[in-house]
Amino acid sequence: MVRTEGGYTNLVLPAVLAKHGLDGRDAAFATELAAGTIRRQGTYDAVLTACIDRPLRKVESAVLDALRLGVHQLLGMRVPAHAAIDTTVGLVRTKVGIGAAGFANAVLRTVGSRDLDGWLAEVAPDPAEDRNGHLAVVHSHPRWVVDELEIVVGEELPDLLAADNVPPRVTLVARPGRSTREELPGTPTPYSPYGVVLESGDPASVPAVAEGRAGVQDEGSQLVALALASARVEGRDERWLDQCAGPGGKSALLAALAAERGATLVGTEIHHHRARLVARATGGVGAPGVLGVLNADGTRAPFADDSIDRILLDAPCTGLGALRRRPESRWRRTAEDLEDLTLLQRRLLEEAVRVLRPGGALLYATCSPVRSETADVVTAVVSPRPELSLEDVRPLLPGVTDADGPLPDTAQLWPHRHGTDAMFLALVRKDR
């Protein structure tokens, strides 16, 4: 479903596990098998290329999927070689045919002749001659992604790439006024006062989550919503907007915070199915702090000039800061996507500026640290307009250190430093 239907691993897996009644160790095994295979696809494809006498694009897609699953069991999991090969070959025989099963058996026996380190020594470029090419194979990232990340993180690049391959912990958030952190099982998050890290178990089994009073949300995402809610606002503070609200995690937290202050939130989302997710997460119209969820284009927001007090623009992006949770993003995005995305991000930010009232607060965020999606977008919109300025957002992240962004007064969170998604934050002000 991830490859054939464009699904996201972290959203597809829970539904599949529930459908087949898997829990406990079986669910953990299935999760690691699927997510781990997608995460390490680049490394495994390099190994398979060395074992197959034709380009991988000429291998039937169903066979290639099965081979990747088999390679992950052989090189990335503690599965005995005979079991990994037998189950994979059996899968190919059932789904494709006897001939393909023989091919898979031969390939996997070759793969199983060495361990992962042995294969990397053969298939990864020499780091002395091509450092980034070596890192791309070893850490299973497309080369263009490695090059982009090096620009923003420098010598910490190996640490960041390694962190992208560590399965993320499940983090819950208590929605203020509806639940408390104390009623959630787990260890308190270091930065968000509303989060806990769930040590084990199904989040859906937590009563507050099942009832919609709490949710699953990365700590970095929580910090984005909290930064906007904590920003200084001059005068009226009643109308809040989440401009690109889907799937609704930040909207739900913002609505809870707004309700405590007598304010209301409107969420806009261009995609109908994502707008429905926002409505579900927030409780919809009439829920505390929720004025409405609109299926609307954020580049043509249905609001008057200078009418909104607080705006969150968590802009659509490459998602390269969330590769721990969405490993498939690294294989779906291309360098060519950046141009279209950055144009969209600028249009969205310009529209947010239009509806922001003077004295209000506008937080631009992305779950990508790539400079063209962060500093370049903010500079392109803010610099030409004398009524706009950046205010230091870092004081709105109490306890967070070592988070200077690529522009003065901006912030950048990192998986390898903070244990969060790589969220970028910029607080934009509009003078009267």
TrEMBL record:
Per the UniProt record, the source organism is: Nocardioides vastitatis
One GO term of the biological process aspect = methylation
Query: Cross-referenced Pfam families, in alphabetical order?
Result: Methyltr_RsmB-F, NusB
Q: Does the keyword Transferase apply?
A: yes
Superkingdom assignment? Bacteria
Its lineage reads: Bacteria, Bacillati, Actinomycetota, Actinomycetes, Propionibacteriales
Q: Where does S-adenosyl-L-methionine bind?
A: 244-250, 269, 297, 314
Q: Which family does it belong to?
A: Belongs to the class I-like SAM-binding methyltransferase superfamily. RsmB/NOP family.
So where's the catalytic machinery, residue-wise? 367 (nucleophile)
Indicate whether Ribosomal protein appears among the record's keywords: no
Domain SAM-dependent MTase RsmB/NOP-type intervals: 149-431
Return the EC number.
Answer: 2.1.1.-
Q: Which residues cross the membrane?
A: none
State the SUPFAM superfamilies in the record. Answer: NusB-like, S-adenosyl-L-methionine-dependent methyltransferases
Q: Mind telling me what this protein is named?
A: RsmB/NOP family class I SAM-dependent RNA methyltransferase
Any single GO molecular-function term of the entry would be: methyltransferase activity
Which PANTHER family does its entry note? NOP2 YEAST -RELATED NOL1/NOP2/FMU SUN DOMAIN-CONTAINING, RIBOSOMAL RNA SMALL SUBUNIT METHYLTRANSFERASE B-RELATED
Q: Which UniProt keywords apply?
A: Methyltransferase, RNA-binding, S-adenosyl-L-methionine, Transferase
